[in-house]
Structure formats: structure tokens, C-alpha cells
Design goal:
The protein has 449 residues and is an alpha/beta fold. The chain has 2 domains: 5-222 and 399-445, Metallo-beta-lactamase, Chain A (4-Layer Sandwich), CATH 3.60.15; 230-393, Rossmann fold (3-Layer(aba) Sandwich), CATH 3.40.50. The chain contains 14 helices and 19 strands. The strands form 3 sheets. Strands 6-5-4-3-2-1-19 form a 7-stranded mixed sheet. Helix 4 packs antiparallel against helix 8 (278-287). It is globular and about 70 Å long. Bound molecules: zinc ion.
């Protein structure tokens, strides 16, 4: 194909796993590179059965779980795979945000290929690697881009725009090619604290009169989940804490800084302290300097933020600064009314020591279709039932609702719409013109159909 093309190497009829390749003449740029969250992609590898560390790309290629692209993978990742190692033929990788399904396979990529991320994402990836030994993004030539400042890769120009999402420092991209602009949304919403960023992005997108809009559609299909705005979550947590005098527990996604900030503010308003794990404390300490002063609570500095110290046989170096003054299960149990404890699901055995009074509130502040950290609902409820905790669902999704997605398509007016990161691309076709549900690994011309 002579003109620039778009190829979808992942994220097709699945949530997560976006891998968008834009080619213009000799120049090739890849957007996002992570695993899918859809269950069919877990049929080979699960928690206890992983690709070998000596040849992870080979082991994923075996089942078609990563695309066969020459000149992309690191020699070490390929091992002796039947896809031979070739010097880089992809010239840049851009990562929209630090969620696993967008960044989780970066360690497979040739370290010679520059990886472009926002400065906040760079810090988040570093923090995740420090605190989660199983997460590795690999050695790369990292390039940090600035908001709304173009980056040129040969004929292709990429302009990163910050957007609102359930992890901070998320971006959408305007991708200018020789035959028009491709708009790639990444993941986004506009009912969180950075809604105005999302609006600015889509206004700029419309002004480009884009040839193509590659849009996420996580919630495009039937969506029975109750969704609040971030402010709505705050109001409901406030109401709950005002009426329930005992220890309150909450569970969030680990990198949802907005939600942690909301819970902190609600705890303060109710004269409580928010208790977090050392890992969350480390995350907050990492990202707080990237926000305006006073926006994100800082461990050790912010009044009413403390660390809950689980009993552990050994502590990691990175945890130690946060363990001074950490509260024990006994201390929390004896003065439960003073605390809102953010308890990760993996730490539920703490409940055996915490013994919250019957009827104590458990705020479940998560729930997305197929996200990382999805847990078996039945297991969760079995624990809550055993301890007599009252379940309260209070969540603001990281994704725009179907009607909002369609409204955005209408306002951007692209020539062609490619819905990805969704199991229901046809829902777009029923709602807006110009929709083309993409097929996997098929190049589409940017200019014209
Ligand atoms: Zn995401």
C-alpha cells in the first residue's frame, strides 16, 4: 500500500491489548503494547502458569498472544523463536498510560526502539517496578514528551494530549500522517477531575478534520454497572461515614490516585484518618510532587494519612520509610471509628485480626469490565459474609458511557471510526456514521476507504 496505513495488532473485539501500528512510507510508529483482559486470552497463561523468562515473546507468539512483527522484539525476549530477531523496524513506541493492558508487554520490545511516555507515566512505571517485583517494563531509550507538544518520527507527527482516566497521566494522541490525521483516544472519560483535559483533546481532534478516529469502547455495549462521577463517589462515602460509627473499609484499584484522594478527603471530613498500605503510600509519595501542592495527600506530611502495617516476615527496602508509626491490626481494631482503611483484596486475611464489628461498611470502589485486578466476586462476598460486613458499591468508571462515546464521535466528525478496546464495536455502527469495526492485522489506508 503506497499511502499511510493503520493496522490493529490487538484490542480488536477485546478489552485491553491495544496495539496500533501507524505506517507512513518507511516510518512505523506503534501505540501501546500490553496484554488483553479478555478471558479467551487467558486460556494459556494464568497466575500460576507464565511464559518462560528466557523466551517470553516466543512463548506468547506460540499462541498468537502477541503479533508477529519483525524488527520489534528484543533478541532476549525472542530466544530461539521461529520469528527471527531483526534490528528495529519500528521507529517509536508511544504509551498512552500506565495500565497493564497498555504498557504490560513493553519488556518484550527491542531496547533500541525509543519509548515515548508522559513524565507522570514514567514515574508511575518506575514506582510499579519498585513495588511489584513481577512487573518489568524492560530497558529502553525512554523519551518523555510534553503535553500538546508535537514529536516527529520521520513523516509522522504525534501530538500527545492529556485526558481524564482512572489512572493519572493518561494521554490521547493526534497522529498526523502525509494523508491526514489519525486520532487515537487511548482510554478516557470525562466525569473525573480532569474532564476539561478530555474536552480540550476532542476539540483539538475535531479541528484536525481527522481522516480516522480510533476510539476506545469499553462501555459501548450493554452496561449494567452502576456508575457515579468522582464527585458522586465523594458524596456517597460522606453520607456513609456520617451514619456508620464503626471501622470503615474500602477497596480501590491500586493506581487510582483520584479515588484515593477522594477517600482521603471523605475520611478527613468525617474526622477519620485514611489508612493505606506501604505500596499505596509509596505511590502517593511518588505522584504527589507531580500535582499542584496540596492536591494529593503525602505520607508523613499530610494530616490524617497513615500506613497500616501488616505483620510480615520480611520488609522490602522501599517499604521501610513508610513503616515508622504504621498502625497494627490491634490498634486499628481498638479505635475503629477513627479510621477508614483502604484494604486491598489480596490482604483480606487481615480481617481475621481486624475483626470489624458486624455491619461495618465495606466500600467496593472498583468494577470495570475485565480490568487488571479483577477478582472472583464470589470469593469477595464469601469473606464479607463471613465477617458480616455491609457491601456498598461506589465507583466512578475510568471509561465514558456509550452515549458519551457516540456524542464524541459526532463532535469530532472523522471520515472513518475504528472502535477498539471493546467487545461491542457494532454498537457504534448503530449509533454514528462511518464506523468500520477493524479486523486484526489488516492494514487500512488512512486517507479514504
Ligand atoms: Zn486504562
Amino acid at each position: 500500500m503506497a499511502g499511510p496505513t493503520l493496522t490493529f495488532l490487538g484490542g480488536v473485539r477485546e478489552i485491553g491489548g491495544n496495539k496500533l501500528l501507524v505506517e507512513d512510507g518507511p516510518d512505523r510508529v506503534l501505540f501501546d503494547f500490553g496484554p488483553s483482559f479478555s478471558p479467551q486470552f487467558e486460556q494459556y497463561y494464568v497466575e500460576y502458569l507464565k511464559p518462560r523468562s528466557t523466551s517470553p515473546a516466543k512463548d506468547l507468539l506460540e499462541f498468537g498472544l502477541v503479533p508477529r512483527v519483525e524488527g520489534l522484539y528484543a533478541r532476549e525476549a525472542l530466544g530461539d523463536a521461529d520469528l527471527p530477531y531483526r534490528a528495529p523496524e519500528v521507529h517509536a513506541v508511544f504509551v498512552s498510560h500506565a495500565h497493564a493492558d497498555h504498557a504490560g508487554y513493553l519488556d518484550l520490545i527491542d531496547p533500541e526502539i525509543p519509548v515515548h511516555v508522559g513524565s507522570g507515566t514514567r514515574e508511575l512505571l518506575r514506582a510499579i517496578e519498585t513495588t511489584s517485583p513481577s512487573m518489568r517494563y524492560g530497558e529502553h531509550r525512554w523519551h518523555v514528551f510534553a503535553d500538546r507538544t508535537p514529536v516527529r518520527v520521520g513523516r509522522i507527527e504525534v501530538v500527545p494530549y492529556p485526558v481524564d482516566h482512572s489512572i493519572p497521566f493518561a494521554y490521547g494522541f493526534l497522529v498526523r500522517t502525509s494523508e491526514g490525521t489519525v486520532v487515537y483516544t487511548g482510554d478516557f472519560r470525562h466525569h473525573g477531575p480532569r474532564a476539561s483535559d478530555t474536552h480540550v483533546f476532542f476539540r483539538a481532534a475535531a479541528a484536525e478534520e481527522p481522516a480516522a478516529l480510533v476510539i476506545e469502547g469499553t462501555r459501548a455495549g450493554p452496561d449494567s454497572r452502576r456508575n457515579l462521577t468522582e464527585e458522586g463517589v465523594r458524596r456517597e462515602v460522606d453520607r456513609l461515614l456520617a451514619h456508620r460509627p464503626e471501622l470503615a473499609l474500602a477497596c480501590t484499584y491500586p493506581r487510582d490516585v483520584d479515588r484515593l484522594t477522594t477517600l482521603y478527603a471523605a475520611a478527613r471530613a468525617a474526622d477519620r484518618s485514611l489508612l493505606v498500605s506501604p505500596r499505596t503510600a509509596y505511590l502517593l509519595a511518588t505522584v504527589a510532587p507531580l500535582y499542584p501542592e496540596g492536591t494529593v495527600p503525602v505520607p508523613g506530611r499530610s494530616e490524617g494519612l497513615a500506613v497500616y502495617g501488616r505483620k510480615k516476615r520480611r520488609t522490602f527496602l522501599w517499604e521501610r520509610p513508610f513503616l515508622d508509626g504504621a498502625l497494627s491490626a490491634e490498634e486499628v481494631r481498638d479505635a475503629g471509628t477513627r479510621y477508614l482503611l483502604a484494604l486491598d483484596l489480596v490482604h483480606f486475611p487481615e480481617l481475621i485480626d481486624l475483626r470489624p464489628p458486624k455491619g461495618a461498611p465495606f466500600i467496593h470502589s472498583m468494577s470495570e469490565p475485565f480490568t487488571e485486578d479483577d477478582v472472583d466476586d464470589r470469593v469477595l462476598h464469601r469473606w464479607l459474609d463471613h465477617f458480616g460486613l455491609a457491601f456498598h458499591q461506589m465507583h466512578a468508571s475510568g471509561h465514558a458511557a456509550a452515549s458519551e462515546l457516540f456524542e464524541i464521535v459526532r463532535s469530532v466528525r472523522p471520515a472513518t471510526v475504528y472502535p477498539i478496546h471493546t467487545q461491542h464495536p457494532e454498537a457504534f455502527r448503530d449509533a454514528v456514521p462511518g464506523v468500520r469495526p477493524p479486523e486484526l492485522a489488516t492494514p487500512y489506508p488512512v486517507g479514504g476507504r
